[in-house]
Write a structure and sequence with these properties.
0% strand
């Protein structure tokens, strides 16, 4: 009887720990989603190009590694839409950010290739081109060799 009680308590403790970890994980995911959403808004609406660039850099940082799996598809589409800016420094960081998502960011491929095709080859290394090439590789898209060699 005593062994059964110990087992019951052990199972209850394990279940309680699992519930607690699940709750903490859900809270962390919610926090990351909110942070991603707020950062996307800053990239879109900040008054200065420097602020928008810094926000894009921050977006790249917070979606790195396992965090990219916690970003929902709607937010990923909002990140892809950030490529529509004329600010090449923002596009640089957004491209790197999209590379964090790997194949999930495949819908960004046409826009990334379009941007890459409009970059002057002579100065490509000083533009968003290197980041776009990295992103395309991480996404699993075909990288045009003539555009990604400097």
């Amino acid at each position: 009887m005593r062994l059964r009680s110990v087992r019951t308590v052990a199972v209850m403790v394990a279940l309680l720990a699992a519930m607690l970890l699940s709750s903490v994980n859900a809270e962390a995911q919610s926090s990351l989603r909110q942070q991603v959403s707020e950062t996307i808004t800053v990239v879109r609406t900040a008054k200065s190009p420097t602020e928008r660039t810094m926000a894009a850099m921050h977006l790249c940082e917070i979606t790195h590694g396992d965090a990219s799996r916690q970003v929902d598809d709607e937010s990923l589409l909002r990140i892809i839409a950030l490529l529509n800016t004329n600010n090449d420094a923002v596009r640089y960081w957004v491209a790197l950010c999209l590379g964090n998502f790997g194949p999930r960011a495949k819908p960004a491929t046409p826009k990334l290739l379009e941007i890459l095709n409009h970059i002057d080859g002579a100065n490509a290394g000083k533009t968003s081109a290197p980041a776009i090439c990295v992103a395309l590789k991480r996404i699993g898209a075909e990288v045009p060799p003539s555009k990604c060699e400097w």
